[in-house]
Write a structure and sequence with these properties.
This protein is of the alpha+beta class and 121 residues long. The chain is built from two helices and six strands. The strands form two sheets. Strands 1, 4, 5 and 6 form a four-stranded antiparallel beta sheet that branches. Strands 2-3 form a two-stranded antiparallel ribbon. A hairpin with a 5-residue loop joins strand 2 and strand 3. Helix 1 runs antiparallel to helix 2. The longest helix has 30 residues. It is elongated and about 55 Å long.
Length: 121
């Protein structure tokens, strides 16, 4: 599923991406700490038919998939931030700035033309 978020300028987009990156890095650290303890976690799954199942498992059993997902999201956000910095040299442009998500992962930035140089607030 694709979703678009609209921002007023590049600075707003960069601020949002940095906040999301920080949240993911905090989640990764917490999961790393829990993996070292090998804690038990409750896993709740909702099937396509609406049935709910619950099971308890060691976090080490499910960590690989979760960590791969976190790392993928962190990598995509870092790539977008690097590309924005390379292309716009920390300048703030206003216009229509859209962030496209593909299955919950930031995928690309869409910009209106022409963009205008905005303030640095």
């Amino acid at each position: 599923m694709k979703v678009l978020l609209r921002f007023k300028d590049l600075n707003s987009l960069v601020k949002y991406l940095n906040e999301e990156l920080n949240k993911l890095l905090i989640a990764k650290k917490i999961l790393d700490d829990e993996a070292k303890r090998d804690s038990l976690v409750d896993i709740i799954e909702i099937g396509s038919n609406g049935n709910i199942s619950m099971r308890r498992d060691r976090i080490s059993e499910i960590m690989k998939g979760i960590m791969n997902e976190l790392n993928s999201r962190i990598e995509h956000i870092n790539q977008l931030l690097e590309e924005i910095k390379e292309e716009f040299n920390d300048s703030n442009f206003t216009g229509i700035v859209l962030l496209e998500f593909n299955n919950g992962i930031p995928n690309r930035v869409l910009l209106s033309q022409p963009l205008t140089l905005g303030d640095f607030s």
